């Protein structure tokens, strides 16, 4: 155990340096841009893109879907060392391989709307996962032809590659903030108490206005005498919703982020179109002596 801990401790800074180099590897930009255009061309339907982003779920779909192949492949690796479990291991490899396809589709759809640095890491993440998927596909084929020893070896190799891909995916989310709600830090800066947004009579019906509550910009919208105050920085990548267009979708006035087109209902912040998959955070409002005030929920 001490030996394993030492190996892991030695690997961690090396992985960190490797990923830091990936983030700065401009040589990947050409291929990333061509791949991005390919993805955009292949997923033209906004409905399909929203489905894959997880707009309907209110949560990014890709990290939810990847649990299935990783879980199935890891379980197959355990069964592969136990006697009499060949059929069960083969079934799990088949489930993991089949479920990796929709997970990959959701992933490339998210990837196409990432920033340049994120796309570099994402490209290697996708390459590792494609290699893992190929190894598991060949492993499955070998197992089905009765060649279980080679099938097991390919699967272990596939698991090692998939784990590298998963590490990069974790780095993308937790270190680089891909597909996490980027507007949340603005919420932490707000004090928990009611704060003055402005005088009621300085806002016009149907015209979004930007105000600041301390360091946090908020978007104020007045419709039929009812105010909405939401964080102004887009949940996707912090784009300025105050510069966004207002459109009507299904009878609801919505604001479209000028950076990548995420669209939110102005009445309640509900996300209508991705790439953001989470709602825009709204604040409680009240009117006191002709002043509009807001506070975190
Ligand atoms: S920042 Fe990307 S859609 Fe708003």
Automatic annotation (TrEMBL):
GO terms for molecular function: 2 iron, 2 sulfur cluster binding; metal ion binding; monooxygenase activity; oxidoreductase activity, acting on paired donors, with incorporation or reduction of molecular oxygen. Its cofactor is [2Fe-2S] cluster. It comes from the Bacteria. Gene3D superfamilies: Rieske [2Fe-2S] iron-sulphur domain. Pfam families: DUF2231, Rieske. Residues 194-294 form the Rieske domain. InterPro entries: DUF2231_TM, Rieske_2Fe-2S, Rieske_2Fe-2S_sf. Keywords: 2Fe-2S, Iron, Iron-sulfur, Metal-binding. Belongs to the bacterial ring-hydroxylating dioxygenase ferredoxin component family. This is Rieske domain-containing protein. It comes from Planosporangium flavigriseum.
